Amino acid sequence: MNATIELLQSHRSIRKFTEQKIPLELLHELIRAGQCAATSNHVQAYSVIHVTNPENRQAIAELAGGQAYIADCSDFLVFCADMKRSTNAAERAGAEVVRGTTEQLVVASVDTALMAQNVAVAAESEGLGLCYIGGIRNNPAEVSSLLRLPEDVYPVFGMCLGYPDQNPEVKPRLPVESILMEDYYRDDQEEEQVSGFDSTMNEYYRERSGGNKDTNWSEQLKPLFTTKLRPHMQGFLQGKGFGLK
């Protein structure tokens, strides 16, 4: 493997950071690297809010479910899907723009994720650690109000950045054979593959916790499909002008 592949395969979520601050020049370079990600039709449908106000960071930490590292990390970014800039530009160019389509929601969300992942890889290449914060969607309206996000802009996730103060193991992923399929979708070995991965994850959790965490991948998925559904997101997105038609 080359150095880039090794870097990608060594990703870990970092939730403990040293007090060392990221130089602003480096942060700007990370954002520039993010901008080099692929973008649908060159729309660049994203904006990034660099949250520096300590009170705002503490408020977001609480809104995201009490994630203290939002307040403790060197820098906290909120990645926003942004269709405002591009639709306004098209309108100024003379187009009779159509706003609020589902496709625009998809384009903006994908653009934002691709851009953020470029930032993440660039950050790790500089020895930084990071943790994505999807918990800001627990209270997206409050986060939007705090960040003064206008219509056609919504917060997709946050990202904690800083110099790592921990060295966790790389969390196992599903085997390639279970997600790479030739020519058509097949699930004839799904149960067997998932069962094998559950065993792998059970071993990982037990070793990481000194035997105190006896669970697996399937068990850890339960909250995602029961209590973490975030049904408020549909109404919130519609109120922001996304996904109406």
Automatic annotation (TrEMBL):
Q: Identify a single GO molecular function assigned to this protein.
A: oxidoreductase activity
User: Has the keyword NADP been applied to this entry?
Assistant: yes
- List, alphabetically, the InterPro entries matched: Flavin_OxRdtase_Frp, Nitroreductase, Nitroreductase-like
Q: Which UniProt keywords apply?
A: Flavoprotein, FMN, NADP, Oxidoreductase
The Nitroreductase domain sits at 9-163
Which segments of the protein form a coiled coil according to its record? none
CDD domains reported for this sequence: NfsA-like
Keyword hit for Oxidoreductase: yes
Query: Highest taxon of the source?
Result: Bacteria
Similarity remark: Belongs to the flavin oxidoreductase frp family.
Q: What is this protein called?
A: FMN reductase
Organism, per UniProt? Marinobacter similis
